[in-house]
Amino acid sequence: MTLHLTLDKAETDPLFLQIAARVRSAIAAGHISPGGKLPSARALAAQLAVARGTVDAAYALLAGEGAIVSRGSAGTVVSGTPGIRIGALEHTPFMFAQARAVERPGPLPFQIGLPALDAFPRNLWSSLTVHAARAAGMLDMAEADPAGLPALRQAVAAYLGVARGIRCSAAQVLITFGYQGALTLVRSVLLKHGDPVWIEDPGYPMARQALETAGARVVPIRVDKDGLRVASGIAAAPRAKLAVVTPTHQCPTGVALSLPRRLELLAWAEEAGSWILEDDYDSEFRYVGRPLPSLKSLDRGERVLYAGSFSKVLFPALRLGYLVVPPELAAAFLRASRLLTLGHPVLEQKVVAAFMQKGHFARHIRRMRILYGERRRVLAAALRAEFGERIMVDAGAGGMHLVARFPGAADDAELVKRAARAGLAPSALSKMAMAHDCGQGLLLGFTNVPANDAAAIVARLAAVIHPGPS
Known about the structure:
Blueprint: H1 15-28, E1 37-38, H2 41-48, H3 52-65, E2 68-70, E3 76-78, H4 122-135, H5 138-142, H6 150-163, E4 173-176, H7 178-190, E5 196-201, H8 205-213, E6 217-224, E7 227-228, H9 230-236, E8 242-245, H10 259-272, E9 275-279, E10 304-309, E11 321-324, H11 330-340, H12 346-357, H13 360-387, E12 392-394, E13 401-405, H14 412-421, E14 427-428, E15 442-445, H15 454-465
Helix pairs in contact: 1-3, 2-3, 4-12, 6-12, 7-8, 7-11, 13-15
């Protein structure tokens, strides 16, 4: 069917919320009956002249509310029994990704955000774990410091001072359950329901969903070759309470926030009394030029909160990260941490602290930087050799994935489905966008693609991208 919808781009609400609201109203008014089929996301996006990802986000929101149901190849239909009119649906700002239980034999090629688990020093880690367990006292077993193990907080502060140019005390460092734990603390302390928050578009979907779960009004801001367009953010929401950014290696495009944009962002935050959350998720891995300074290292107005995670450097199952907060916020964040977590497992913190204090952490990062640089180079070369002019590869200057575009190939979301059936795990670039079209492409993690296997794995991908005649 055709939906007669109009959008007002002058409205402050994001376009996907406008689409969801208009579809919701049409259902409540009876213009679309239960069981009635909605236009495909591609068709509605073309009709409204918006990115397909914008319609996908609206449909996902409505599906989460129970207003519509996706029936795969049969299309998307309005919930309820055909012929029975339903009442108005209550709006909720929450949107959750559909969770799927997937059994995997191990890390799959091209999976993003996963370090090289085959190169992790397991024997050393086991030895440190045994030592920490034997040295544990009764107090270690009785309670955990809500802010984190003091030795680990001190080790993080020392590391950030040397590696990222961040001057902070251990009192400003809080240990978290990874980046999501840091984001939970930030939204609990700084945000009220309805507060506007800038996010990068395209950007990290789980950050957006976490903010929406807290009731924040997410404002997607376009990213270009220089990173977040600060002027666009000021035009859309000049008094946003928070800006969430990945300035060193933007997720997913890989661009770095330029120095003029960094200074512009800091000046806006100081003038508006706003806060910036810097997600420095994989800054350790840069292969071209000198490491970029953190945004926090340039922060003279104490408006930046800095989040890091051990998931990308050590291993994700560790579920430990850290958050550096301005001194004036330390007490409030400690209270929130006490209420939300009551602390973190002490044994794992002791092992990470020892790993850092004994110099293993810095050596591990240096080894992984060399290994990843080689795997990145070999994978990019294998892709160009296999696809020739049918591919555009953006390896970026750093990070743990590259962006591959295949002009004329199928929709990237469809390619991801095909790849999954072939035992590969790339991610669709278009799905990272919310309101601004970033084009089609695949995000290919290279950290778990050994150099000797790259050509064979790329050949499997080629069979997915350009399948031969059956």
